[in-house]
Amino acid sequence: MSAKPVEAKNRDAIAAMGDIVEQFNGKTREDLSLMDVMALAEAMTHSAHNFFDTLDSTIYAEFKDISTHIANMRTEIGALRPNDIKNGRIPDAGHELDAIVETTEAATETIMTCAEAMMMADTSDSDAYQAEINDNVIKIMEACSFQDLTGQRISKVVETLSFIESRISKFSNAIGAMDGDPELSEEEQREAKRREDLILHGPQDSKDAIQQNSIDDMFADDGEEEPNQDNIDALFG
Amino acid sequence: MAIDPTMPILVVDDYKTMIRIIRNLLKQLGFNEVDDAADGTEAFAKAKERKYGLIISDWNMEPMTGYELLKEVRGDEDISRTPFIMVTAESKTENVIAAKKAGVNNYIVKPFNAATLKSKIDAVFGE
Prior knowledge:
The structure holds 2 protein chains of 2 kinds. Helices cover 76% and strands 0% of the residues of chain A. By secondary structure, chain A is mostly helical. Among the domains of chain A are: 6-78; 81-171. In chain A, helix 3 (82-119) runs antiparallel to helix 4 (126-143). The longest helix of chain A has 47 residues, at 34-80. The radius of gyration of chain A is 40 Å and the shape is rod-shaped. Chain B has a single domain (9-116), classed as Rossmann fold (3-Layer(aba) Sandwich), CATH 3.40.50.2300. Chain B has 5 helices and 5 strands, in the order βαβαβαβαβα. The model of chain B has no long low-confidence stretch (mean pLDDT 91). The chains are: A mainly alpha, B alpha/beta.
């Protein structure tokens, strides 16, 4: 048997209450019996019950949706592997970058020292001079092997960035995330303002920054073009 | 204005290796009186203590940048006429224009070579 619709139940309850109220017309408090009061209470209870039935099912459906959504989110966040990224991959990438800095510093130090030794080498004894030059040239070549190591380390860092990018992209698609305006911390705001005030952009990509263009072209475009050394020279006449 | 190879030069950069490179290049060009500083604050203090014939400065340093150093130098009556060359990786047009407006005498973008450094020094001293 199908249940009566909620609207019909409400109508029935209101009609029942209306009947009882009609019976009360003209009666004083002394005329009312206990049965009258119970009949009214029953009608009101039915009415309230219908109301709460409606309320319960609506809220239940909402909570069920929210619960399902949270469960899905948990699954997606799990797939994101945040702990693996936070505790493993990002620190590892940081170590790789530190190692790159150390390796390049050490290589630069070796190369600079060899170059300085050759600059200051005593030329009075040609055999000794040649031996010193050869020795330093070999050391410089050996030091250049840092490029192979840093290349491999950089590949690992790029791999980590690709992993994170891939996971975030999947997560973003799964939850239908939209880009919002990021709230910068006070420190980030200060740093952003400092970079703006002091015109700090850092090194430019070579394909963007250093092209050999004429000063006429640069100023014909009202200075919007990236400068190269020739452009800059022209500014100083 | 002829170049005096005995003039003291102040090299300002927060990377010791870059200071070492510029110092060696200057040495090759015949300049042996080279001091150095790691940022604008230290450089300005040194420039107030010793009369330098030339300041060669990086841009991006902390706490005081080369751009701020340039403005400080140009705003100080005692040292305002010191020739100033910016050597930097900041290669945006607005950087060059801002430095020019602030009174820089020349501008070199990194990476650079000895010939570029020499030509800019020659240009600053009109040779």
